[in-house]
C-alpha cells in the first residue's frame, strides 16, 4: 500500500508539473520529480543528466531547479524522497553549474528547507529514526561542504595574484573527480548505480560539467606552503569542521543496512579520501613552522593537532566499517597515519617551556643603553593668574594735549 501510494503521488506530481508548472521549463520540473520518486531505488542517470543539461545554459533554470527541490523537501515526510533530494543536490554541486553554490547558499540562508533539515522526521515508515538521522547528518555535511568551498573561493579571490603552478595536483575543493553513486558492493555484490562519465567534465567542488563554454572560473588557490599562518590555520579549521560532519554521517542502527543509505554514502566516502590528504598536508606544514611561530599561533596549531589526533582515530574506525560493509573497494582507501602520543607530548612540552619564558624584548628596547643618563628636569615657569594682573593706569590728559 505504501509503494502504491508513493507511485500515485509521483504520478500526480508529474501530471501537475506538465500542466501547471511554476517554472519556465516544465520538462525540468518533471525530471526533478522523477529523480526524487518514492521508490526505494537510486535516481536513474538519465533523469539527472536531463537536469544537468537544462541548468547548463540558463541561470533562471538554476534558480527554478533549486526552488523545486526546496519545495518538495518542504512537503515530504518520507526519508527516501528527502535522501534522493540531498543526493541530487550533491550531484549538482559536483557536476552542475557553478552558480548552484550561490543559489543553494542563498536558499539555505533564507530559511528554506534545502540543507537545513535539523528537524526532519520520517512519518511514512515505521522504525525509521535511524534513516531520518542519516538524512539530517547528510544535510549538515553538504552545508559544511558548501561553506568550505565558498571560504576557499573567497580566500583565493583575495590573493589571486599568488597563482599555483599548472602542474599542481587537484584538490577536493577544485576539480577532484568523484564518481557519483557507483561501486557500492553492499546488498547486491558489484552493483553500479549510475557511474559518473568523465566525458562531461571533472566532478568535484568546482566542476561544472561544461567544457564548451567560456565561463568565469574561480581563481586558483595559493599553495599551502606559501600560505601565511593565519590563513593556514583558518583552512585547517574549515577542513576539520568538514571532517567532523563526515564522521557524523556514519549510519547507525537499521540505516547501516539500507541500500539507499549506502548508495548516498559512497560519494561522501570518496570525497573524504582527498579531505584526509589535505588535512595531512596542512598538518605537515604546521609541524615545520611550529617552533618558529608566535606563541598564540603555536597554541592554535597545537590545538589543531590534538583535535586531528582524535578525528583520525575515528576516521580509521569509520574506514574499517566501510570496508567491511563494502562501500568502495578496499584498494581505494588511503593508509591512515595516526598522530602518535609521543609527538603530542613533545609539542605540549615545548608549549609549556615556552609559556615559562620571559617575554622577548623588542629590538628597540634591546638597542637602548642599560643605564641611560638621568634627564635633568626643567623647572616649570609659574603660571600667572589672569585675575591677579592689575590694569595699567590711564595716560594723563595734559601729556596727550602737549603732544
Automatic annotation (TrEMBL):
Residues 180-192 have a biased composition (Gly residues). Residues 153-226, 352-403 are annotated as: Disordered. GO terms for molecular function: 1-phosphatidylinositol binding; clathrin heavy chain binding; phosphatidylinositol-4,5-bisphosphate binding; SNARE binding. The keyword Membrane applies. It is found in: Cytoplasmic vesicle, Clathrin-coated vesicle; Golgi apparatus; Membrane, Clathrin-coated pit. Its main location: cytoplasm. Pfam families: ANTH. GO terms for biological process: clathrin coat assembly; clathrin-dependent endocytosis; vesicle budding from membrane. Keywords: Coated pit, Cytoplasmic vesicle, Endocytosis, Golgi apparatus, Membrane. This is Clathrin assembly protein. It comes from Acorus calamus (Sweet flag).
Amino acid at each position: 500500500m505504501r509503494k502504491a501510494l508513493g507511485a500515485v503521488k509521483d504520478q500526480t506530481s508529474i501530471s501537475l508539473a506538465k500542466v501547471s508548472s511554476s517554472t519556465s521549463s516544465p520538462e525540468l520540473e518533471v525530471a526533478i520529480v522523477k529523480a526524487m520518486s518514492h521508490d526505494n531505488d537510486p535516481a536513474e542517470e538519465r533523469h539527472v543528466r536531463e537536469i544537468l543539461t537544462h541548468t547548463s545554459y540558463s541561470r533562471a533554470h538554476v534558480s527554478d531547479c533549486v526552488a523545486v527541490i526546496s519545495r518538495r523537501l518542504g512537503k515530504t515526510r518520507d526519508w527516501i524522497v528527502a535522501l534522493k533530494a540531498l543526493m541530487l543536490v550533491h550531484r549538482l554541486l559536483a557536476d552542475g553549474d557553478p552558480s548552484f553554490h550561490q543559489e543553494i547558499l542563498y536558499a539555505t540562508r533564507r530559511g528554506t528547507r534545502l540543507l537545513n533539515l535539523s528537524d526532519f522526521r520520517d512519518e511514512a515508515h515505521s522504525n525509521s529514526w535511524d534513516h531520518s538521522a542519516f538524512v539530517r547528518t547528510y544535510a549538515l555535511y553538504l552545508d559544511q561542504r558548501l561553506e568550505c568551498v565558498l571560504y576557499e573561493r573567497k580566500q583565493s579571490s583575495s590573493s589571486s595574484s599568488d597563482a599555483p603552478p599548472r602542474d599542481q595536483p587537484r584538490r577536493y575543493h577544485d576539480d577532484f573527480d568523484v564518481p557519483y553513486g557507483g561501486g557500492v558492493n553492499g546488498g547486491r555484490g558489484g552493483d553500479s548505480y549510475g557511474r559518473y562519465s568523465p566525458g562531461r567534465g571533472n566532478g568535484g567542488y568546482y566542476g561544472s560539467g561544461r567544457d564548451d563554454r567560456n565561463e568565469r572560473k574561480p581563481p586558483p588557490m595559493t599553495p599551502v606552503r606559501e600560505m601565511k599562518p593565519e590563513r593556514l590555520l583558518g583552512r585547517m579549521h574549515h577542513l576539520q569542521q568538514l571532517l567532523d560532519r563526515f564522521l557524523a554521517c556514519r549510519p547507525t542502527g537499521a540505516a547501516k543496512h539500507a541500500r539507499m543509505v549506502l548508495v548516498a554514502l559512497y560519494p561522501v566516502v570518496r570525497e573524504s579520501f582527498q579531505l584526509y590528504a589535505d588535512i595531512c598536508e596542512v598538518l605537515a606544514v604546521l609541524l615545520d613552522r611550529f617552533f618558529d611561530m608566535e606563541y598564540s599561533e603555536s597554541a592554535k596549531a597545537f590545538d589543531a593537532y590534538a583535535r586531528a589526533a582524535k578525528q583520525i582515530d575515528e576516521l580509521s574506525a569509520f574506514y574499517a566499517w566501510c570496508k567491511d560493509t563494502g562501500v568502495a573497494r578496499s584498494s581505494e582507501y588511503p593508509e591512515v597515519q595516526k598522530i602518535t602520543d609521543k609527538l603530542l607530548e613533545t609539542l605540549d612540552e615545548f608549549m609549556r617551556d615556552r609559556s615559562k619564558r620571559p617575554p622577548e624584548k623588542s629590538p628597540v628596547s634591546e638597542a637602548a643603553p642599560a643605564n641611560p643618563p638621568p634627564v635633568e628636569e626643567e623647572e616649570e615657569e609659574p603660571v600667572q593668574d589672569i585675575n591677579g594682573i592689575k590694569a595699567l593706569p590711564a595716560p594723563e590728559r595734559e601729556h596727550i594735549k602737549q603732544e
